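Practice problem: Solute carrier family 22 member 31
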Amino acid sequence: MVAGFFWIAGELLLPGLALLCRNWRVLQGAVTMILALCPALLLESPRWLLATRQPERARKTLQALAEDDCPQDSLLTELEALSEEPPRPRYHSVCEICSSRVIWKNGVILGFAAFIGSGIRHCFTRNLVPHLPHFFSSHLALVGTEAAACLFVCLTAERFGRRAILLLCTVLTGISSLLLLALTQYLLELIVLTLSVVGTAASHAVTMLSIFFASEVLPTVVRGAGLGLVLGANFVGKAAAPITAIPNSRGFFLHHVVFASFAILAVLSIMLLPESQGRSLPQSLQDGESQRRPPLFRRPPREDHLPLLAPHAIPHGYSGLASSTKRMLRSPDPPREM
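Answer key — structure tokens:
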């Protein structure tokens, strides 16, 4: 989720950079150069290096991260175990995701959710344009809704689970879209504005949480490729927004109907996802295939078949149980009050 705050900080700095450049070509070149230099400052993931059997590179990365401090004992033990065998790196391709069953299903659902969250957003921001005529005010308002959505996800996803919050945000997105699609001309302007703000924040939360959820559900050996597909679906949804900007066309209505229907379909699909809260990250393809969907509503613990004795009075062995029963039978009964 830290990456989401960095992305929002970059969007806040974008208007200042636009004022400095004064030209969209120079602005595009400056942004491209900044994004191209960012990967060079990052280190390779030690978890991915260990999962692909590259202990030497993993050791160097851990030493660089620890800044000449010793890594944890568990990591050292795993590195020593891998070093005993001949280092044979094993890489995995995107085609292995398509040949799987559970991993492919999770990736498709999360990519579909990210596609909907980014594609349907223009249906809500279109109603905000008349209230924010200036570019900088509209941009800052959209960034503010994104920051609120990011903060909401950070406060709730760890407490209630990733799948539950993703389902809630998708439901809010679908309901807001359907209400605006059917009742815009009958609702008050304040209600339309409220639904647009809620839909904008919820759609951004759906996109951000889908990407974050994919980084926890997909196995380490194919996590980079899977995240690339989910992010690609996100940008495809953003590319569909210019269709609605064509003047004197019916593209906006068709765009709104299609994405509102997709939002309802996404609500049903998210129920098939596993829950990653409180679980270790899957390393291999076998770990990713072993993930199962938990029940949507947690069942209360059953209170029947209670033991006859208190938990602290239950002995650990059957011999102790027999001796304690004999002592209870031999003890005199307490006098009864008349």
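Discussion: Residues 8 and 144 are 9 Å apart (CA to CA). Students who identified this feature from the tokens alone can consider the problem solved.
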